[in-house]
Amino acid sequence: MNTTSGHDSVSPLPEIVIGDDDVTLDDLMGVAFEGRRARLSSDPAWTAKLQKSRAVLERSLSAGQRVYGVSTGVGYSSKHAVDPTHIQEFAYQIIRQHGCGLGEMFSIQQARAIVFARLVSLAKGYSAVLPELLHALCGLLNQGVIPVIPMLGSVGASGDLTPLSYLASVLVGEREAYYEGDILPAGEALRRAGLTVHHFVPKESLAIMNGTAVMTAIGAISAVRMERTLAACEAATALVAEVMFGRSQAFAPIAHRLKHHPGQIAAAGAIRSALAGSRMIDSGKEEGRLIQDPYSIRCAPHVIGAARDGLTWVLKVLHRELNSVNDNPIVDPERGETVFAGNFYGGHVALAMDLVKIAAASVADLVDRQFALLLDSRLNVGLPETLVAYAGCGVKGLQITCSALTALAVQRSASDTVLSRPTEASNQDKVSMGLNAALNAAEVITLLQQVLAALLVALSNAATLRDETLFSASAARLLGHVRSRSPVLTADRRLDHDLRHLTQAIDAGGVCTGEPAPQR
Q: 197: how many CB neighbours lie within 10 A of its CB?
């Protein structure tokens, strides 16, 4: 399916039903990368809940009650009432004042995930939006009118206000949208797609903007990318062990079972499986060698496993956040109350993304040490420091790049959660920085993938200096996938294009299997 527009009259993939029930991160990835369609539930009880929620808000406004962001200003200005005759105009003013995002634009796939995340939250029935707004959001996804959203400008506390204002704007035909491979004025994109502008009723524009959809969507995509990358790191570690005549005891089931951590057990199991059939492992001459392998081999399951266990928690957090009601105010349709709270606060996502950053940087450091080990003549069992058979520099320059990228990954792993900056006249005096954390996590994952790509090039060249008939079947497959993107060096040459191709393959989940992984 064409993921650049998502505009197909018939989709071979099942639609995702949006209503009371939870959706999954797989659903989000399917909408973002496979162009899966979304449709609203036909459950009459759910529709009645939406109508009841809206009715509560309408009664509050009719009774002259102050409703934050609807009949009052927003933020520090909420002490001021909005003229009842200007409430409709104010709903649009809220959008326009936040049109100040900067930086690169989110990709079409990322923006689709953002639209989907906002749709899921508003559909829970506690945000007092009309079904027409939910239909309009489905229309954007299904007809491929995708907001152009800048990455920078959210502190992640009154939700992702600034980036989500770009979604709200496209609904009313303002700013820009992706459509059929082009960036068009939003009104033109809607017209070409056969969609009409949505007319916000009071509260709806704030409901769109006052939530965690951007950090959640970007966080979810990053978490899935991290899963794929860790699998590739396990495969690479097994190949390092083979090239270095490593010892299998480091991956013995009993050692990891006694440590108890599920991620470590899984990582050791993956490495052990990749080594099946190898005649390189446990085959090196022991005289003059350390009795145990260096930590970058022996403790790899512990490093990768810790990242895996952290990621398990991260995925749970993101699933909960995706299915949460995360705007303000919210409406209790059963009690008939409008509740002013802070569910837009992105603290859980921020902390989860900080953990992803730290885990990715730690694994990048492991991979960098594995590369260095290959070049260390004291430990590499006879390999030349260039890892090539000809008279040249081989991969020595590549190790410099690997080290530089690793240092950058470590630097970028600093916590965003603790970098709260008071904004908006100190009304927003403690903020989450959730989107910054998600963006930085995405960058560190990319750096990890690039470091891993460098290691794979080094391993491919080092393996030619061993008897490859003794390698495991898994190693042979991995080497084939690497060499299809980076041929073995026969003379010094540029490697930047090779690294980009390998990084893309790692990101798609194709390094271990040779084929892109099914999009999650």
A: 15
Summarize the confidence of residues 34-54 as an average pLDDT.
Answer: 96
How large is the angle between the packed helices 25-34 and 213-243, nearest 10 degrees? 90
Nearest alpha-carbon partner for 150 in 217, 104, 94, 97? 104
Give the highest mean pLDDT range of 335-344, 466-475, 506-515: 466-475
Up-side HSE of residue 108: CA atoms within 13 Å toward CB?
A: 21
DSSP codes joined into one string, 131-174: HHHHHHHHHHHHHT-EE--EEE---SSS-SHHHHHHHHHHHTT-
Q: How far apart are CA 157 and CA 160, in angstroms?
A: 7
What pLDDT digit, counting tens, does each position of 113-172 carry? Answer: 999 999 999 999 999 999 999 999 999 999 999 999 999 999 998 889 999 999 999 999
Q: Which of 419, 359, 329 is nearest to 126 (CA)?
A: 329
Give the β-pairing of 102-105 and 146-147. Answer: unpaired
Q: What is the mean pLDDT of residues 96-112?
A: 96
What average pLDDT does range 94-115 have in this prediction? 96
In which residue are the tokens 């903007």 written?
A: 209
35: phi then psi, degrees, rounded to nearest 5: 70, 25
Active site residue 126: no
Identify the helix (H) or strand (E) that includes residue 114. Answer: helix 108-122
pLDDT tens by residue, 13-36? 899 999 999 999 999 999 999 999
Q: What are phi and psi of 81, to 5 degrees?
A: -80, 150
> Which residue of the set 68, 76, 92, 126 is catalytic?
68
pLDDT of residue 425: 64
- Which helix (H) or strand (E) segment is 44 a member of? helix 44-62
Question: 238: which 2 tokens?
Answer: 């097994």
